[in-house]
Amino acid sequence: MLQIIHLKNDLRQILRDPIMAILMVVPLLLIIAFKLMVLYLVPFIQALIEFDILPYLYYVFVFVVIMCASMLGIVTGFMMIDDRDGKISELMSVTPLGRNGYLINRLLFSSVLSVFYSILGYYVLNVVELPFVTILFVSLLSSNYSIIIGLLIFTFADDKVKGLAFAKAINSLTLFAFTDLLALKWLTVLSWFFPPYWITLVVQTPHTLLVYGLALLVNFGWLFLLIRHYRKK
Q1: How many domains does the chain have?
Q2: I need a surface site. Which of 42, 50, 198, 221 has the fewest CB within 10 A?
Q3: Is residue 213 part of a domain?
């Protein structure tokens, strides 16, 4: 019952803020836009150039997954900033839910939607064939990435104005998902330490268990550090 009340409050909070409301809808529009691009723009480009871009279309799926998670993470970060400004997070810390319970409730909002949009994006775009286990794993990484983005914004932005500017900078992390295209060894090695890179690598090598393990290590390493910082504040 308490979870339902929090969900209703979250939805009301989002609808009151045009930016957050837009960010909630944009992932769906993004999926539709890239589906249209795959259907109509890619064949047009293929007809103009001799280079075969079809083997690289999985990057479209990777980009959509990361951007959807990023936008939902921004929404979560903004909601947590609102809660901090309104002293709601402090109030929740003295309720049975507690500070940790508040954090879990807040982060679940974006993480569950990230899973949904990742799976939806995979089947709508239909640009790569993956085992179902890999689809779920990529969705998990997407979910975790949305939480990371939300915590980064909440941790380093004092208000939503600064949060919006910081969100633009955070979106540059998406570039680490595509460093293999540049064939620069040092840049690829640097990318190992950032979550977006591992979404790409899991999609590229869906049958390599070592990649799954390293992806979990990097993603949950970021999550652990950010949650520990949150608890110290």
Answers
A1: 1
A2: 50
A3: no
Tell me how far apart the alpha carbons of residues 121 and 37 are, in angstroms, rounded to a whole number: 13
CA distance 125 to 226: 32
DSSP 160-222: HHHHHHHHHHHGGGGGGGGGGGGT-HHHHHHHTTSHHHHHHHHHH-TT-HHHHHHHHHHHHHH
Q: How would you write the pLDDT of the chain (233 residues) with one tens digit per residue?
A: 444 445 555 556 555 656 666 767 788 899 999 999 999 888 888 778 777 788 888 999 999 999 999 989 888 888 888 777 666 656 655 555 566 777 777 788 788 889 999 999 999 999 999 999 999 999 999 999 999 998 998 888 777 777 777 887 888 889 999 998 888 889 999 999 999 999 999 999 999 999 999 999 999 999 999 988 877 76
| Residue 143 covered by a domain | yes
Range of the domain at 141: 13-171
Does some domain include residue 21?
Answer: yes
- pTM for the full predicted model: 0.86
